[in-house]
């Protein structure tokens, strides 16, 4: 897709700092400059969100995500990672190309990657019945 910024990065039209890749996915540094080491892992094929992703592509994206996450902790001195995905504009997806954010964490970095949530209003049994896969 020619107007997709991630597709342009994958095609080499836009510059990027590539971190790793496999046949179906590529990882590069986020250009947002919001934190050191913020990495995006994206499928090479234009797929709008995780909801549209086939199993093989999803597996390739997640395998690369795991490899990079392990490398960050085992070889780069990070204490852990946060993995984030937003699927759909109402969930905060800003680029309509499926991607996983890897946020490398250091002890005491002061980053709160878990937002303050409003609290559940229904009992667990009601929620479970409504959302359970059958």
UniProtKB/TrEMBL annotation:
Residue ranges constituting the HIT domain according to the UniProt record: 5-112
UniProt motif (Histidine triad motif) ranges: 97-101
Stored SUPFAM superfamilies: HIT-like
GO BP terms, alphabetized: nucleotide metabolic process
Active-site feature positions: 99 (tele-amp-histidine intermediate)
Top-rank taxon: Bacteria
GO molecular function annotation: catalytic activity
PROSITE patterns in the record: HIT_1, HIT_2
UniProt protein name: HIT domain-containing protein
Species assigned in the record: Schleiferilactobacillus harbinensis DSM 16991
């Amino acid at each position: 897709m020619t107007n997709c910024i991630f597709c342009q990065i994958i095609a080499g039209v836009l510059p990027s700092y590539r971190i790793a890749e496999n046949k179906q996915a590529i990882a590069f540094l986020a250009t947002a400059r919001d934190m050191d080491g913020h990495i995006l892992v994206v499928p090479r094929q234009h797929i709008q969100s995780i909801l549209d992703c086939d199993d093989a592509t999803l597996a390739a994206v997640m395998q690369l995500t795991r490899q990079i996450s392990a490398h960050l902790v085992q070889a780069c001195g990070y204490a852990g990672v946060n993995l984030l995905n937003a699927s759909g504009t109402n969930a905060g997806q800003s680029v309509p190309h499926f991607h996983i954010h890897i946020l490398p964490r250091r002890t005491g970095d002061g980053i709160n990657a878990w937002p303050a949530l409003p609290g559940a209003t229904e009992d667990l049994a009601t929620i479970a019945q409504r959302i359970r896969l059958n």
